[in-house]
Fold this protein.
Amino acid sequence: MSINRRQFLKRAGVVTALGLGSSFATIGIGDRLASAASEYEEAPNADKIKHWAMVVDMSKFKTEEDINRVIQSCDKIHNIPQMDSSKDEIKWIWYDDYEHTFADSENEYLDETMKKMPFIVMCNHCENPACVRACPTGATFKREDGIVTMDFHRCIGCRFCMGACPFGARSFNFRDPRPFIKDFNPNFPTRTQGVVEKCLGCYERLEKGEQPACAEASNGGLIFGDLSDQNSEVYKIVSTKFTIRRKTQFGTQPNVYYLVGGGDHA
Amino acid sequence: MYKGGRIIASLIVFVAVLAFPFFYNLGKANAGPVINVPSGTQCVEPVAYMRANHMQLLNQWRDEYVRQGKTVYVNSQGKSFNINIDTCLQCHYSNSATSSSPAATHPAVSTTGASNPAATTEASNSVVNPSDQFCVTCHKYASVEPTCWSCHNLPEGANQ
């Protein structure tokens, strides 16, 4: 039996169509299996904010004890290791003097008390974060609520963000942090060697409707709120009092405001 | 055949060496992973789906939680679960020290039908033995090494 050219092409066409059709059918089934009908919801009692902001009321930080209490509360909750050398140091919230906090406005005739005053410093959760621009993997990003956060799964430890951040708010895990965690909190993950870390704005507390750990431990020294909400305390302070921010010349629009003048706010 | 005897002898030796692993393991049952989860319960999605897609689901959970701030997963049956690795651990990391021995109450079942006696007896020890845990035993069987526990915590700081 012999077939001519026309018959051969017809049969080949039919076989190809059958093969393609069945492969589409199996792909379709696979897709349905891969996406079970499901959805994702936000936490029921989450504190829904749009513009994360913090005011540091310097009048409330008189003694070293006031500052250490705040720092320790963060260290404890977030499993921050206490490293023995400053190179390995991991910092989420710490303090520094005027000269280093507000480097651009330092002058030699500055009031002595101001010069020596310890300023609480942390990630500023900038509106225009330099670290996010620098991150090559998208591990660092700004959330809708304004928190500049990290997906540690994606961090490749390149440290571009550390170079980009003008505030030194990022630390690299040169060593495995776990042996250096003094007071381990099993409810918060640790980090691992080779990733950068930073203050995460207490996203895990906001989703439960709680205040950030530092604000809660500060006895009113750190005022947290939503700057987009005109009834919030932070908005009232920032819009009526004189506050300063760190290193504004870099244009990152930091969201931590320092209330340096008088003691009564809002 | 020129030097035929030597060629055939060397061929036999060659084939014997090549087939050595096959004969060495002949008759040894390939014990499957020990799955000591409470029977009659269902994971966040049906078993067949979880078996095939749990890694994709975990990645989806991570992205929705970390990037979109979604903390609750509603499954295909309308049941809600917290997006947290602890949700997995509640069943898949049974602490035999506190709960009743999973080996005694829930006979260990495996995908191949053969149970691994060594692992089931370990499960009744009072000390938590990570090697008899669901994810560990499965991943070991499949030769997969996820790095979850270099950051995430096992219950009660067992990884510390």
In short: The two ends of chain A are 99 Å apart (CA to CA). The mean pLDDT of chain A is 89.
